[in-house]
Write a structure and sequence with these properties.
- This protein has about 300 residues and is an alpha+beta fold.
- It has 2 domains: about 5-60 and about 195-295, 3-Layer(aba) Sandwich (Beta-lactamase); about 65-195, Beta-lactamase (3-Layer(aba) Sandwich).
- It contains 12 helices and 8 strands.
- It has helices spanning about 5-15, 65-75, 100, 115-125, 130-145, 155-160, 165-175, 185-195, 200-205, 220-235, 240-245, 285-295; strands at about 40-45, 50-55, 60, 150, 195-200, 250-255, 260-265, 270-275.
- The strands form 2 sheets. It has a 5-stranded antiparallel sheet with strand order 2-1-8-7-6, with helices on both faces. Strands 3-5-4 form a 3-stranded antiparallel sheet.
- A hairpin with a 4-residue loop joins strand 1 (about 40-45) and strand 2 (about 50-55).
- Helix 4 (about 115-125) crosses helix 7 (about 165-175) and helix 7 packs across helix 8.
- The protein binds 6-diazenyl-5-OXO-L-norleucine.
- The site of 6-diazenyl-5-OXO-L-norleucine (DON) has 13 residues, from loops.
Length: about 300
């Protein structure tokens, strides 16, 4: 299999696609990103990496950060997290409040916004926001084996000023006793977490700990990695998770910045980025690209 050639052909194909999706505009700093950009990067278990397109352009990883936050929170409190967050797909948009009322402030899973806010609230416990974010950044930099990964403060501030739905979710959960900190403290941390910026090549490297490959340095136990992957395939693309599993057949986590981290267990960590989104809020061309990659490599787990 010539992976370099496969990535090259995917990148060429994506460049000719007229429908590029629509960039997220509810976060003002993301509304002005050029939707013509595309990058894909693959890290294999033997340590080789192949990248194509705009793979060194930095972007806002947004909800892809929820995977790193979940790994950190599980490391801190273990299965206790599941007393506050569920493990079921929601079938609702990532920022929906609907089920939260029916289910008394306990979010369906750690990847929808409400669940991610509780996850942040968990790793914040006993720390200042700066310390908590410092711990998260240490984890991400170690995973990527790259110190040059930072938080884009202008994106975080842009969302603090406009993130009214997330404030509503946080206050609602607080009213049910499912938030331990003041909403502005937890959300300040959450928005900065979402504003982590990295490029596609760095993101593919940062995902290697989820491959469960015996050849790579382990950051989490194999059991925990397996479970995070299970959550990624069932909940990682919100109400588009079934469609993604059907088309791609691999665990993935998307973000409204247009990035998707996809894991081929034991084989590869894949990052793709294209800022235009589909109606679920996941990268339109990114999904198409990993659908093609999974088909051409035979990496689907099904
Ligand atoms: O909280 C938000 O709405 C954003 N910071 C993250 C949402 C997101 O990335 C959804 N992903 N597709």
């Amino acid at each position: 299999m010539d992976l370099e050639q496969i990535l090259h052909e995917i990148t060429q194909d994506m460049a000719t696609r007229p429908d590029r999706g629509r960039v997220a505009n509810y976060i003002p700093q993301l509304a002005c990103i050029d939707p013509d950009q595309f990058a894909i990067s693959v890290c294999l278990a033997d340590g080789t990496q192949y990248s194509c397109g705009d793979a060194d352009m930095s972007f806002s990883i947004q909800s892809v950060s929820k995977v790193f936050a979940l790994a950190l929170a599980l490391g801190r409190v273990g299965d206790h997290l599941w007393t506050r967050v569920g493990r079921e797909p929601s079938g609702q948009a990532f920022d929906s409040i609907l089920l939260l009322e029916q289910e008394k402030g306990r979010p369906r899973n750690p990847f929808i916004n409400a669940g991610a806010i509780v996850t942040t609230d968990t790793y914040l416990e006993g720390h200042s926001p700066a310390e908590a974010l410092g711990g998260l950044m240490r984890f991400v930099r170690e995973a990527a084996d790259d110190e040059d990964i930072h938080i884009d403060d202008s994106v975080a501030r842009s969302e603090i000023a406009t993130g009214h739905r997330n404030f509503a979710l946080a206050h609602y959960m607080l009213s049910h006793g499912n938030l331990r900190h003041a909403p502005d403290l937890t959300l300040g941390t959450y928005f900065h977490q979402c504003a982590i910026a990295m490029n596609t090549a760095q993101l593919a490297r940062a995902g290697r700990f989820l491959m469960n490959s015996p050849d790579l340095v382990r950051m989490l136990s194999p059991g925990r990695v397996r479970r995070i992957n299970a959550l990624m395939i069932t909940c990682g693309q919100y109400d588009g998770s079934g469609d993604f599993a059907y088309r791609v057949g691999l665990p993935g986590k998307s973000g409204v910045g247009g990035g998707i981290l996809v894991i081929a267990p034991g084989q590869a960590s894949i990052a793709v980025w294209s800022p235009g989104l589909n109606h679920y809020g996941n990268s339109h061309l990114g999904t198409l690209a990993v659908e093609t990659l999974a088909r051409d490599t035979g990496w689907s787990i099904f």
